[in-house]
Prior knowledge:
The chain is an alpha/beta fold. It has helices spanning 13-27, 33-49, 55-70, 80-85, 87-96, 110-122, 167-175, 190-194, 203-217, 222-231, 234-262, and strands at 74-78, 100-103, 128-129, 137-138, 148-149, 159-161, 179-183, 197-199.
Amino acid sequence: MDEEEVSPDHPRATSLRIRAKLTHGFKIGITSAFGLFAHGRGEAFDYLIGEETTENATRAIRAAAASFLLARHSVLSVNGNVAALVPQELVELSTITASKLEVNLYHRGGAREEAIADVLRKAGAKEILGIGKAASATIPEICSDRRRVDPKGILIADTVFVPLEDGDRTEALVKLGKTVITVDLNPLSRTAQMSTITIVDNVVRAMPLLVKAVKLLENEPEQTLQKIVRTFNNRQNLREAIELINTRLIRLAEQQSDTDEGGD
Ligand code: ATP
Ligand code: MG
């Protein structure tokens, strides 16, 4: 089903439209079959969260925006899922934060890298790192193709944005001393647990808000930005994200038993 074919009256229209974006991405060779599985895992957590941006995520978005504005060399790592879901927002974020865009795939292969670069170019990107031989450097302790990075990008970055990332690579980037910012619907994933700043939200909702937050903070003095980063506690925020799911499920379970009683 194409995005336009999703009936606006369908109770799960938003979710279906996101799926359609990904299946389209799969058809045009930017999203991998593994990416579709990853999306399914994300969807399940979105259901638990309530499919809306929580205050908890908003706090992480603000800290992420401040981090981008403080970074000397920030890079946005792009995979097949985010290229299918939020190409415009990625390009806009890269422009307003002076971040480089770098394609970094779990499963590399010339055609897919080129197809992703194409989508980003169509969304307005001028420079895209990590394509083909440009990904000539390697970072240690990762088995997949994701160890290959661009010496002008992730290798020398102080801040790396890795939405929908795999845990191994996040761990490797953190070990290299980089500030790692992620968007991940699963607060229990290794990526969520290991990152410096974890935005527990759907990337489709979080990206426009991140762009907005950067615009809101861009004229703030460095001290204010530093304070925002310093007072953000990722461990505490993750703990709260898990508690929010817990509280929500308890509430939903209680409603369930009310219905049962009424049905007698
Ligand atoms: P990890 O390797 O970090 O332990 P994992 O192996 O469960 O996680 P991966 O496929 O490596 O999963 O990473 C993809 C992550 O992206 C998952 O945690 C998934 O929940 C999350 N995810 C998928 N779709 C979205 C989305 N649209 N927005 C935000 N997060 C998403
Ligand atoms: Mg993984």
